[in-house]
Structures are given as structure tokens and as C-alpha cells.
Amino acid sequence: MKFAHFSDCHIGGWKEDKLKEINLACFKQAISKVIEKKVDFLLIAGDLFNTALPQIDYIKEVTSELKQLKDLGIRIYMIAGSHDYSPSGKTMLEVLEKAGLIVNVMKFEDGKLKFTHDESGVKITGIFGKKGGLELSEYERLDKESLEKEEGFKIFMFHTAINEFKPREFEDIEGADLASLPNNFNYYAGGHIHYIFKKDFGKGFLTFPGALFPNNFKELEDYPYGGVYFYDGENLEFEEIKVKEVLSKEIDVNNLTPEKATQKIIEEMKKVDFKDKIVTIRIIGVIDGKTSEIKFKDIFESLEDAYFVLKNTARLSSKLVENIDIKKGTVEEIETQILKEVIEDNKIMLEENEEIFTKELIRILGIDKEDGEKVADYDKRILADALKVFKIENK
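Given the sequence above, the corresponding C-alpha cells read:
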């Protein structure tokens, strides 16, 4: 018996077309490795797609890969992840299962979680993941005793953070306590938390394989390559999935002018090999001028041989920020103050009392849309009321 485990493919998740292509290519490479290793079955622990209603092109590509496994006799077992569900509770996994390509192992019988039996004799079950940790109530209702008493080689799939094993950057994510998991399983196939982790647990291992391809800028920095776990009941190995190399650089431009900051970034990047790589540049520091005056167009042109370039300026600021007038008070007081300044700056002549005018305008702009009201009708109603305040005839 030998199986593979990966998770969090998030196919279609990036906005940038080039990164969407790499994301899909990582999925295809993972499937190729699964075939190459001649496993009996594959576990995908949630978030196959990035949305419950993926684009038709992605559905076609993914189903083609899954069918390739099916035709080779490699079974596919899955659970839904937090991104797999629509607001109405529907998931693409239902379609894939109906087509005979996968088996969703979260099934109940007489109110109890049941096992799916693989041809190899392995027994598999698991619990889905939902947004905001809504799946945690399922663990509270779980009849662990019946699961623990089951004999044989057992796998538990889950798409939930485990509190005892969460890295510091994931502290705010809702998770389940380790004690929530049933005991006496041989393998715990995790998903949801995008980091690579393995731990001796139960009769074997508990693992998180991370996102198959990083899902945001920070993940590209911290976990540039996801991968696949392969397990035969004794030996556990992890194989990276690497379609494009990732190069991450942090550049400090503290106390530089925008012109010198631009020059430093370009010069620093000349020192590294970025050709055909995904490049992330994190720019930090407080510059002597406006951050908008850094010539990012010139920087990107200097990196045209890279496969794709992303920048992050979250830790970049300007000394000019110190001159910004910070207003204090309640929301209503600040809104009133700003409106008064706009009236004065634009020399708006008011026939009636300025205070009455200001309060009435703020009241109108704060009106909520009524239940069942169309957006166009709501906008029309607010505009009409605002024009009355300005004593402008609506024609």
C-alpha cells in the first residue's frame, strides 16, 4: 500500500494570469509525480479550487488530470475545504463525485461519521473545512469512540488548523485542539494551513503539505514551494513541486530620496540572477519624499527578463506623513469637520445655516439601502435627496 497526499491547490486563485498558469502547472506536476510513484490512491485535503464556482477552463483542465488518474486505477479521496463551498453550501466536489472521478470521504450513517474502504484495505474518513472555522462544531459532535474502535489501517482527513501546531503568523486563525481528533489512526492528512509540517502522532504521522503553490506575496517569501507527501505505512517522504524558481529580496531605502531609492533597487537587483524567475521585492524604510515618486515603471523594466515581478510596500513610508493633519473625535464630529473644510475651501455659498446644511447632508449620505431595494433605485433616491439639500432642480 502506498498513497500520496497534497492540499490547498487554490486553482484560479491569483489575479495575475501568469501566476494562474504556474498554479495550474504545479497541480499538473503534482499529478505527474503521483503517477510516477505508482501510488494506490491520492488524498486531496481541501481547497482544490479557489472558489466554489471556478472558471470552466479550470474545471476542464482539472477533470482531465483527475481522469488520467482514474484511467490508471489510482483512486482519489477528498474532503471539501473552506474555499470549496458556495454561500448556499454547494461544492464542485459533488459534480466530480457524480462523474465518478473522486470520492468525498465525509459521509454519515445513522448520525455517525463512516469509513470509506479502499481496495487496498485502508479505511478513510474525515471532516470538511468551512470559512471562519465553522467546521469546529463538527468536531464537538464527533463520535470518536466508534472511529477509534475500528480495526485496520486508518486515515483521517481534515481541513482545519490544529492549535498546538500553529505557527505564530497563524495565531488568529480559528483552530481545533489536538484532543478533538480521534485517536488510533495511522495517518492524519491535514489541509488549510499553508505551511509544511509533519509530526509523529497516533500510529503514524500528522502532516500539512502546505499550499501546492503559494497563495500570496508572503507565502512566496516564506514557503515558495509546496509539495506532495508519499507514505507507504513506514516511510514518509516529501517532494517539492517547483515549476518556476522564486527569488525574494528585501531592500532598505531608509532616508533616501525617491530618485536614489529607485536607483538602489535597480542596482541591488542587478546583483542577482532573476532571469525566468518569479521575483518578489519587499521595499522597506522611511524615504525623504513621496513614495509615489519612486519610479516603479523603471524598476519593472529593468527586470523584464524575470518571469513575473511582484512588489510589496507595506513597510515603506514617507517622512511627509508627519505633516498630515490627524483629526480626532467621533465619526460624526470628523465628518462634520471635513464637510465644513470642503465648504470653506471650495467657497460654497449657502443660503441657510451651515450647521443645518451639514447635518442634513450627513444624514442623507448615511441612509441604508432598504430590503429588496435595487441598487439603481437606492442611488437614485439618495441623489434626489442630496440635490434637494443643495437646492438643485433634478431634471
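The chain has eleven helices and 20 strands. Try to locate this feature in the C-alpha cell string yourself.
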